[in-house]
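Technical annex B. To support the medicinal chemistry partners, we prepared a structural model of the target in complex with glutamine, based solely on the information shown next.
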Amino acid sequence: MGALELPISDIAAKVQSGELSAKELVKEAISNLEAAAEYDAIISYTKGRALEGAAKIDSKVAAGEKIGSLAGVPFVAKDNFLTLGGKTTAASNMLKDFEAPYQATAIERLEAAGAICVAKANLDAWAHGSSTENSDFFVTKNPHDKTRVPGGSSGGSAAVVALKSVPFAIGTDTGGSIRLPASFCGVVGYKPTYGLVSRSGVVAMASSTDVIGPLARTVDDAALVLDAMAGKDELDSTTIDRDEKGYQPTTTYHLPTTKIGVIREYMSEGLDTGVKQSIEAAIEKFRQAGAQVNEVSLPSLPLALAVYYIVCPAEVSSNLARYDGQRYGHSSAEAKTLEDSYFLSREEGFGAEAKRRIMIGAYVLSSGYYEAYYKKAQTVRTKIINEFKEAFERFDFLVGPIAPNTAFKIGERTDDPLKMYLSDVMTVAANISGNPAISLPVGGADGLPIGLQIIAPQKADRTLLSISKAIEELK
Ligand code: GLN
């Protein structure tokens, strides 16, 4: 087993003790990623900066300095995080030559803890999608079956963790983009409470639901990464205070006192048999471990997808308005006037999905339609938030699948945007409500992984990670 396959805390301890060199780990991570090039998970490498950072850590260790909880641990960032030392593209032609002038807070904090970003992962352009097929550059392949998608939009991030190239990756989850690829690739994907990790320096998609989180091999590893990123940031006014106890799972989490609600709306029709069986088997294990398991209904959940696909494009249309070809990003060479430049730069720079969302968003926000769509969606959003609150008065956690199916074939849903949107039917509700949620690998069907979704009350991130670890240990 290579050093990079150890638990993250062991890697960091060995770097701190001088037993492992950060520089060697960075080299190993890059060669792992290069060896797995056939999966097309990586858009670019940040080799120079990574090696420099590693050398600094090694010399600090030699000087007896204390590094941090992620000392020398290489990682991959989804390419919608602003990073120095290379380009940040959001997998869009609009930003294909963009070099960020500063780094995302999440990246800064990971670096402060000693972690080293070695590469930028592929995604659906602007994080719009569920399969990574909307990338303007190439399609990432699922490590379990190259003819299938890795899920999206953080498909590259999930793939590199599943391939064991790096110990962790970071992604964004606006409607499921960490959890869905985690489920399809068989890794742990964690979406924190809205506001727990700063969005500063992350290419904005839908600002009221965008969250940042880790993809890792184990719950402990994911918790350690979250711990390094979490907490208030003056550059993002929506950030919240971190839990003063941190995010390491309590090792003594007691399942028999836990009340688990199985979400009826997610266990009914439309579930693939394999998914249903795996989720039911996991639930049966909780029962055997003594947890009190009951069904719960959140009657407005079936409306969550419609709400999301109104609110999200509305926010997308406003967030993408800044790409006008003037200050940064693609600027059309054909334009003769300023107006031309706006039109042509956007026409050439945005792909089909971004254009679709800009049009839907502008439509639902326009006078005359605002009341019929946007306002109604916000009303139902409040209803969904309240139904979660009520459910959490009776249950500690809610569970269900992440998606009705396992990873689908490349090309299977690309002709039909609605079919693609349906991939998110079980993930978007936790974004709309801001609740923390995890995808935990619990089994498989036909060689393809399946993720269990656990949703917790807002700010209960530490307990969610604790129960997740207890469940991981039930295996
Ligand atoms: N698949 C969803 C969408 O296309 C979610 C994307 C995301 O979470 N970034 O909007």
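Notes passed to the chemistry partners:
The two ends are 22 Å apart (CA to CA).
The mean pLDDT is 97.
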